[in-house]
User: What shape does this take?
Amino acid sequence: MSTRVIGRSVCPYCAVGCGLILESEDGRLAKVRGDRTHPANFGALCQKGALLAEAVNARGRASVPLLRQSRDEPFQRVTWEKAVAFVATRLREIIATHGAQSIALYGSGQLHTEDYYLLGKLAKGFLRTNNQDTNSRLCMASASAAYTLALGADAPPCSYEDLDEARCFLIVGANPHDCHPVLFQRMRARKRQRPDEVTVIVVDPRRTATASLADLHLPIRPGTDVPLLLAMLHEVVRANVVDWAFVRRYTENWGAVALAAEAWPPERAAEECGVPASLIRAAARAFATSRASVALWGMGLNQSRDGVQKNLALINLCLATGNIGRRGSGPFSLTGQANAMGGREAGGMAHTLPGHRLVANPDHRAEVERFWGLPPGTISPARGLTAAEIFRAAAAGELQALWVICTNPGASMPNLTLARAALARVPLLVVQDAYHPTETSEFAHVVLPAAQWSEREGTMTNSERRVCLLERVADPPGEALPDWQIFCRVARALGFESSFRYSSSEEIFREFVATTAGRDLDMSGLTYDLLRARGGIQWPCPKGAQRGTRRLFVLGRFPTESGRARFLPPVYERRPAGTTNEGLVLLVTGRLREHWHTRTRTGKVAKLVRAAPEPYVALHPEDARRLGLAEGHWAEIRSPRGRAVLPVRLEPGIAPGTAFAPFHWGPSAGGDGAVNVLTSDEVDPLSGEPDIKYCEVLVRPWRSRPSRTP
Ligand SMILES: Nc1nc2c(c(=O)[nH]1)N[C@H]1C(S)=C(S)[C@@H](COP(=O)(O)OP(=O)(O)OC[C@H]3O[C@@H](n4cnc5c(=O)[nH]c(N)nc54)[C@H](O)[C@@H]3O)O[C@H]1N2
Ligand SMILES: Nc1nc2c(c(=O)[nH]1)N[C@H]1C(S)=C(S)[C@@H](COP(=O)(O)OP(=O)(O)OC[C@H]3O[C@@H](n4cnc5c(=O)[nH]c(N)nc54)[C@H](O)[C@@H]3O)O[C@H]1N2
Ligand code: SF4
Ligand SMILES: [Mo]
Assistant: This one.
């Protein structure tokens, strides 16, 4: 047996973007280790990343194109030519009969930037529909909208280096111990290095493993972040620790936010949020008075019907305390998927175009039309359907075709019964995935087998704006193809031959970075060679630049009209409180360290499955007692949308009235364990992000164990 290094890459799971060294054994990808020279991880990896080879080599890969005329027929193996011709012919017929607005394309933050760019070019430029959205709508859409409103661009300002220099970490609605493990290690190292000088504040209804690092844990009642953050700002003003010099010189609209904060003294917020006023005050003062404070957040803020308001409230706190554009400080959203950032850059959402451009902006449309060699007026000015809207429309019979790429909505969408009805109803469903069957591909007419990580070349941008190249080191199974090649084949079969003639992913990258020239994210200086040589570069990096950009807004200038950052007063609407008296609790859904989303990969890695074998619901022991439940009992959980049955675990660290369940187990795991049948697809009006993070449910004891397939 001989082991040898066959290439370098980046982990395809979370957006920490750990650098990897890939090794083969007897010609096969066998081992993954952390790249000691990579600035995202310096050699560290979490267990999921370290076990990647096993996931990629697992059974269940989609390896040949499959086709069937109707859902009650078995799939037939067909050639690529036949599958592509079928998709193109059907799309042409549908567009001719029902118009381009009757088709939708649903992509993913796990595609490469090149794939994303090409998908957008095909959808918005050539199929002429803006109904191209992505699972990032379920994830980062609220952060993206808030950055744009407050700072003028969708531009996370920080670097991971800032975590090594921060004196205060405010972690709100995020659990990096499980979800961004290598960054958590970095924060823990910082805390251990200066235990008395570094303060860690965690705002989460659960005492998570992340909270074990906290000096202050604020066990917030779900949904009440806006009053909590306004009360922190209230205290910052009262204690007169506002950074007045920064506010006066670099921001606008302070008065409106000061007024909003005035209405929330910590005592009032304490009642609303279930957090003692003294804790709110201590957190506010620690954040405002430390030499450098960084605010990190995740889905606890974003996945909410007031997700943008929660984001604005946190950004306000950073602006008021001058914590932006300086070492060790800033608002720093923890991006979820490995390339959710790249998708935002390439215009992967229903309201965006490449280079941080907007569908609604006539100049932006004209610029992109010129890039794509299209006549003026080709790109529709109307925003397309967002993720939740796509599935609602399809379920109502209003869509004729849906093409799903690199995402598994048959398990991951909120209000899952409706989403699955959509998948079962739409007259043409094309599913492009690396595995088959999945909870989505089982509804498909056409399954297009995709090459995945390590089998395709391309770029991704991590959470700190670092663009990295992922090398191809292995062959995909059977006839599977890289996503960009599949898009090209379908585009050419549709007659768009001359605009989709690429011979490599690098050629697409060159075209894409040209569209970013002169924009806030300017990447026109990036080439594959440079990325290969440097191991990743942070945008902006314009043509001719010697290096990337570590930190944004260091000069206090923002890409807004006035050049100043904008304070925006967040709006708060009270939601009904859960009370366990009638069996009502607020069910939070989220992640476990061992699994990745719908488990198409981690569910096939023995070590990870052993460590986290099955779904469950965690309850506070007091709540469980009141409900007549004990550890290991079965609980039936109902919401107006559906019903799940789960084994009970007792967790004293969860706020009473709140429950938690991981969403990794979809319908295919059997036994009514899919929690997304309970969650809500109501959306934030500004970002379109669904209110997935928690929902009100009724819990009661259930008689017996439901049957579950392993
Ligand atoms: N192991 C693993 N890691 C992952 C992923 C994975 O599937 N598995 N997925 C990746 C992706 S795509 C994403 S988006 C990220 C998500 O990363 P995170 O956002 O860190 O993870 P979540 O578990 O979704 O939720 C975060 C926390 O929000 C808390 N919360 C719930 N409601 C509220 C609230 O109203 N207010 C506040 N303040 N907190 C609340 C929950 O208790 C939970 O601990 O993880 C990425 N990393
Ligand atoms: N209840 C609840 N639901 C949630 C969330 C929550 O917190 N709670 N979080 C939401 C969030 S933040 C997210 S990001 C979504 C994630 O939800 P999904 O995107 O549905 O989750 P994944 O399991 O990562 O799906 C990725 C799919 O792409 C396939 N794949 C992998 N590599 C490739 C490739 O190279 N090419 C192609 N074509 N396919 C590939 C995988 O096999 C898999 O089927 O879930 C959302 N749903
Ligand atoms: S921390 Fe994220 S990027 Fe790094 S190895 Fe783990 S899953 Fe992969
Ligand atoms: Mo996500």
In short: The longest strand covers residues 642-650. The two ends are 33 Å apart (CA to CA). The pocket of MGD (ligand 1) is lined by residues 14, 139, 172-175, 178-179, 203-206, 208, 220, 222-223, 225, 298-300, 336-337, 588, 590-591, 593, 595-597, 693-694 (CB under 6 Å). The chain has a mean pLDDT of 96.
